[in-house]
Every structure is written in C-alpha cells, then in structure tokens.
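Note to self: keep these together.
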Amino acid sequence: MTTADAAPEVSPEDFSEILAQTRQFIRTAVVPREQEILADDRVPDDLRTQAKDMGLFGYAIPQQWGGLGLNLAQDVELAMELGYTSLALRSMFGTNNGIAGQVLVGYGTDEQKSTWLERIASGEVVASFALTEPGAGSNPSGLRSKAVRDGEGDNSDWIINGQKRFITNAPTADLFVTFARSRPADDKGAGIAVFLVPADTPGVEVGVKDKKMGQEGAWTADVTLTDVRVPHSALVGGTEDIGYRAAMTSLARGRVHIAALSVGTAQRALDESVAYAATATQGGTAIGDFQLVQAMIADQQTGVMAGRALVRDAAHKWVTGEDRRIAPSAAKLFCTEMVGQVADLAVQVHGGSGYMREVAVERIYRDVRLLRLYEGTSEIQRLIIGGGLIKAAKRAQQ
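Structure:
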C-alpha cells in the first residue's frame, strides 16, 4: 500500500473544508468561464494560479512531500466536484496527482522523491505519463520504446528511443515519466522499465498540440525520444523490473479517479437537464411536465446515483487493499459508459438547443466521449473483470 493510500493524513473536518473550497472555486470561478476555455483552447493563467494556491496540483501527494495527502477515498469526492466543469481544468493537474505522480509516490527512491515530489505538488513541475504508443495503448505489454544500458553499475547511463502518443500535458510538461522496454518479456517479468526524463533532455521532442473532438484546453501531443541519455539514477525504484507493475498499479488507481470524474460530469449534465426542463416550454407547457421528458431525467438520476455509490465502494476497497483490480475496472467501465448515456439524454432533453455550440450539454457530450478510451478502454475493463473472475474461480477449484 502506498503512502498516499494508507490512513488519511487529512481529518474529516479538514477535508470537508477542502471540499467546500473546491466546490466554491469550481462553481463560481470556473463554470462562468467555460466558454472562454473552449474558445481559447486553454485554461486561463489566473485559474491555473488559483488552483496552485489551493494545493490542487498536489492534493494526492503525501504531506511529507508538500501535498495535501488525500487518500483515494477522499480523492474521488474531490474528483466528483472537479468533473462538474470543463475537464481541461482537472487535466492541468491530473497527471501530477494521478498516473505520473503516483508512480513516484509508490515506487520512487528516496532521492527521486526528494528531487521531484515537492515541485510536483506545488505545481512548479508538470509531470506527464509517457506510456501510450502508436502500437501500445491500453495494454502496455505491446510497448516498443527501448532503453539500452550504457556501462555498468550506478555510474552507467540509459539510452532511450521511441515514440509516445496522446501524452496528456506534453506541451507544458517539465518531466516525462517514461516507460520503455529494457529487455524482452521473460519469466522474470514484462521487461518494462520506467524512467524520469526531464523535458529539456537532449533528444526529447514534443510534437504539435493534438486537435481533438472535445476537451478543449486539455492539451495532448506526441513525444519522440531519439538517443535520449539519462543517468542510472533516473530509473524509477533503481530497478528495471518495476516498470510494468508501476504502470498497472497507477492505471488501476487512476481508473477509480476517472470514474469519479465521470460522476461529477454526469451530475452537471443532469442539473442542466432539470433546469432546462423546468423553464423551457412547448405549447405553453414546461417540457418537464411531459412524462417522457421526466422518464429521461429519471434515467439520468438513477445513473448518477448508481455511479456515485460504485465509485465510493471501489475507492474504499482500494484504500483497505481489499480489491485493487476488479473494482477499479468495474467502476471505470460503468461510470464512463453511464456519463455517455446521461450526456446523450441531456442533449435530447434540450432538443435542438442541445446541439448548439456554447450550450453546456453540447460541450459535455463531446468531452465525455474520451473517458471511455483513456486509462484503458471499456473493452479492456471488460477483459480485466471477466478474466479476473474466471481466474479466481479456477484457483478456488484447485
């Protein structure tokens, strides 16, 4: 169990205050500027500064490294608030707290933690998780990037070559948590190591910003590594056998967070639907008085409530160590599919207005489509869940 997911470092009383401040920030400072974020394809600098000042760049980093020290059960409550607005805001600091930062928290050496974690927690450093490749997405075992050792012992270097794709925050990253194959997979493990590669290292090239369907303001790009030389001290955990496990653990934890984010966005879509149905009229009657509209809203509400309960249960099981494989995938699968359905119903409730730019549910409809893809597609989650249950049943029969 990593430090960040042991007993919470933040008391329930203090966490209630953090949650209230975050909610206030989202509802009063960010929501009114969603169209600005969409139009400019960037989060305004003053909102970034406010997020830093609130500790949001390090909310899941342990307090000893300058973070707030929230465990996953608290993390998901915060994520449900962050999901209420443009997902670009959360994306700014999502990798610091999640898939990139947690690799360091869980597997970094003391020297690596002291070098990077405080700067990650403060927002001075933006960390990116450089795993996905053109031929290796949800399943890291297909990784083609290679790391070759040059020399022997602690004074040796590693030379990394490869191409990464769809890397969140790559255009603004200061540090790439980079996965590369150091040997062919064998009975000792997957042969995947993870390295800390500063963005200004010679041979690191960040491509142009991707043009995406939605999530304007959340930047991704390709990252090419050509004969990138890093010292042995950049090898996370000091051993090349830790990479695959670090990736899988970090992704599994991140799936619970993404599920919670989906619940927050679904709640926003529901709220927009209810507000519109209560005020928009058809033939002089509020459309919310029509039973078929009420049925759509009922389905939205049911999905949101079920998702919230599932997220909280999965987070609890993670913190206690009861289930860190099946439950995260089940939560991610259900909640990301659910928010897609809720967003679709929100557009339907709004009718033609819901298809218009500058209407919140139109943006939400596009934004949430990505949630079913990253941190492992819905199909991968089904394989993890189904395969895991069958393997457990076979073991029980032996």
